[in-house]
Specification:
The structure is a homooctamer of 149-residue chains.
Chain A (H helix, E strand, L loop, with lengths): L2 E7 L5 H11 L4 E4 L5 H12 L5 H22 L2 E5 L7 H12 L4 E4 L9 H6 L2 E3 L2 H13 L3
Helix pairs in contact in A: 1-6, 2-3
């Protein structure tokens, strides 16, 4: 049975590819899932499918509803949740996903630079591992799935 | 892993076919489930299988029990629940299914004409998307499963 | 410990008063809860508190959100849920509450005239008692709490 | 039975006092809870009680563990969770609390200025009300608890 | 906080009184609950409150529904569930209650003569104690609540 | 996805074969599970595997523990639970399984002759269908799985 | 509402008294619970109440069942679980309680000397705080309940 | 569907191989899982992947977090949990796993020599079978999966 690993958070760097490439090279039986990473599609999906809105608040509300159909389904299916906080943006949705994962009892891994350590201390405390680089996430999966360092 | 999508509600129009056809054309890996849509069979199943009743109340009671074996099993298996409210009938069972889906934490999509907006406001508030046409349900599934608008 | 009984559904007749009066006369240790029954306040609460909306859909959406803070809290606290379907209106929120109560495993009592029996068969099947008059609800509470017919 | 309302998030303004004062004036039967709002104590509690650490990461880790004993206990007891996002700081712990509240099925209210609307759209989508001022939170509680606008 | 102890099963002997009397003499802070033990009222409650039925099956069905409002509420509130199997009758409802208690994770105590040991082995296996006399149930409560043999 | 149907209860008649044969003939995609039906093996498994006991009570206790490893695993996997009460024996384990199934929210079907109706009224009330003959169970599965009467 | 704190583990030193005395002096609104700490009573309770056993295994089995009625009830009621590992004995029941607390999502505090750090690393990892002295447990409770260092 | 059996506890003898070999010879459809049994890798995984620590406590803490990603995932997937206590070491993690399995409702089997009976009485009481030799575990699986003694 493959492991389901949900990759939450930052969408502006190639960290998901680095994790996925590393897992493939290591021959791990993993299915990676995550949010829609096409920023524009993610912002527009609500109004594009369900009809236009004049107020930005409701445009966002519709879009967030549509995206939540995906993210909640995949988050609940996940065996492990990895949450990436990048160097920019507020990324509250990443912290929100981490909170859901923690409440659902999912093993949580955070991935962020040291500069965020103090601000993320509550999230990191709920995590079972705090990684700095995507390659460490691959090493974690390699070890927890196959027992090899 | 295919997505399980439960299609609840109205049984007198072809909306389920329109959703299923659209999903097939879009190449989505979905298994659609739903209640028995043969109205007569659905009404008669209790007495046909378990024995006749004189009072209509108990005929309905038996039938509803038998149908619930199916609907609860499939509702609990579902990743997403779509509930259709048509232009006629009271359709309390559709609203009942929506309440169960909400309490079970299933992502909920409603599908109904604008004329029901006020009467359905509590149900719509619990939904992650409110669609008007079956084709919008297909577009939602296409987006949430594949990330494509 | 008093019993918490949530009275859901129809807000245009005096059925809640009849239940509460009967319970008081019977000396039952019950706390009755329910939705806000001031129709206008219930419709307007979202925009009155959180700001105006041009589109009726979003006015309803805001109001339904605010009302849900109350109804979900009280529904979850309830020991027993009674759902009343009156002779008029579609009352989808009543059926929605019944679905939530069923999924949460709350003992459910329905209260409605015979004319709705067929349309409510799925909801009635999930109920532990189907009453026709508010006084029967009082008699039910009197019996289940005190063992007296 | 008083309502338990957990006030999560920003600790640098007087919003908690404004909510509590308003609730007192309105005569609401509410018990407000929340994290320790003494910033220094909150940062130091781990090492002060359990022993010093050289590395800031482990100092934070210890402190976050101690604070979580409080916040998780009170969050789980809460009937309603209000999460405030102020104008400054990253406030990931607020979003994390919101995620936990959502996964636990707690009615969620967010409180933040419009400037954060886009960044908070996923959190707001999971909320039943989005307020801008503490006084709106009081008005919400007054309405949902007593039915009065 | 008093302990809630649900006394399920046999209604034709005075075992509940013996348990309650013993607990009172031992000064235990216990609230005992249980099904309606007036056999006739228990059999008739459905038709007496909700209307007559011609077929005995539906009379029983209505009555069992009404009684379940009581028994499920009290069983779920219980800290400890004691199930008594007497020397006569089939007492399937007692075994049914024991199954519910086990699935709900309630500490279960059975009370029955040795002659039923083989027939009750599955139920006894799910229990934390198997008693022969009501006085042993009192001794159990006295010990588990106060630590005194 | 095949349906998992757990067949609990009586082990001295051929009802399981009749259900399984009927399902096969109807071409249903069902996996039937159930307890070990070799009466002697079921009674002896504890002492045969884990070592002899002098007292019958502990022999039964050991055996019931071993059997519970099987029955609880399969009961929890089941989509539907069918419980058969035959004409003889006390069959408390069948009622116990029914109670577990009810508390776990599994759709429950009972199968028994009319002579047990009064004694089984609480169990039947928790069931969604009451059948008299194994062939009715086949008809139920055929209908709920395929929608055909 | 007082906090319920379950004190699990070692019964041969006065650590529970030190925690309770400190909490009393600090004026904390706490109710401490725990296992029966009279070693002899704890060992003998099964056979003393339910009848003698020849084999030590079954004597222990009976006693452990009786004690579990108490410990599971109090553990499930607890807001916080403190588990003490002393310098002697294997104390597997303490680690077992810690595992239950972790799976139930209870905030967990461990209390043990440094010499056990490596052997207890899995248990400590599941804890929100690792204390060395009972007075630190008091300081933790004082802080998490009242916000004071 | 194969059974998932988690083998927890002692890592210094060949008991896992004896169980797995026996199951293979018996032709059982089982997937065995368990912790990483390479002692050194298990101790070092945290610092090897996530970075060095000076203090042994944090080295252990990091390692235990990483191992928990594996063990919790596999424990939650398991149908049956077998916990082995060997003749040496304190093995608190084994008892901790047993506590988690018990709280999660997993059928639990313990495997240990008689000399530990008294010290393990609470753990054994929560188990459905207490075995002495790995071959008995094979016999248990053979019986519960296939019904053959």
């Amino acid at each position: 049975m493959p492991w389901q690993v949900y990759l939450s958070g930052e969408i502006h760097t190639d960290w998901r590819e680095r994790v996925a490439d590393g897992a493939r090279e290591a021959g791990l039986d993993v299915e990676f899932t995550g949010p829609v990473t096409d920023h524009e599609a993610s912002d527009d999906c609500g109004v594009a499918i369900l009809g236009a809105e004049e107020r930005p608040f409701w445009k966002d509300h519709k879009g967030a509803g549509v995206n939540a159909i995906r993210t909640r389904t995949l988050l609940e299916r996940a065996d492990v949740v990895v949450v990436r906080f990048g160097e920019q943006y507020r990324q509250w949705n990443a912290a929100f996903d981490a909170g859901m994962a923690a409440a659902l009892g999912k093993p949580l891994v955070t991935l962020h630079p040291e500069q965020h350590d103090h601000a993320l201390k509550e999230v990191d405390r709920a995590a079972l591992a705090v990684a700095r680089e995507p390659e460490q996430v691959v090493a974690l999966l390699r070890y927890v799935m196959g027992g090899k360092l």
